[in-house]
Amino acid sequence: MKGGIKLSNEVLEYIGLNLNKEYKNLKFTKPEFNIAKSYDNSMLYKVYKMLPIKDIEILVSYTDRTTEIKERYLTAKPWDVFIKENETEFLELVAQTKVEDVEQIEKMQKEFEKHIPYFIKYDKNYLWQIYYSNSDKKYFMLVPAREGDASALFYLIKKKLENSDDNIYVPICKEDYSDNILKKSEITDFENYIWLFTKQWPNIYEVENKLYITGVTQIQEGFESKYKIALETAEEAESEFTLFKALFILATETNYKFDNCIDDEGRLRLKYEDEIIQIDNLSNFITKQASIQKIENKEIKAEIETGSNELDKLKKEVELLTENYRLQEKQIVMFLNCKKSFFKKLKYFFKKPVKGTRFNLSKTENNKAKEKDEESTNAKSKTEKLSQGVYNLSDLVKLCLSNKKINDELKNIKSDIFAMKNKKSTLEKRVKNAKKYLDEIEKHKKSIFEFWKFAKKDEDPALNEGEEVVTEKKLSVDFNVQEDMPEFSASADSMQKQKLSIDECNSIFVCKYVLDSINAVRNGKNIKKTLERDLTNLQDKYVSNKKTEIFGDIEEDYTKVKNLNNKKHRENRKNVYSILRINDKTTIDEFRDSIEDVVKLLNEAYKKITAIANFSAYYVDDKEREYVIAEIDPKKINFNDLNDKIVYKTQMKMGENVLYFSNITNYDNYNQTLPSGMDEETKVLIKNIKRENKREVTVNVIDEEDLYNIKINKIKVVEWYD
Question: Less Cβ crowding at N or C end of the chain, within 10 Å?
Answer without folding.
Answer: C
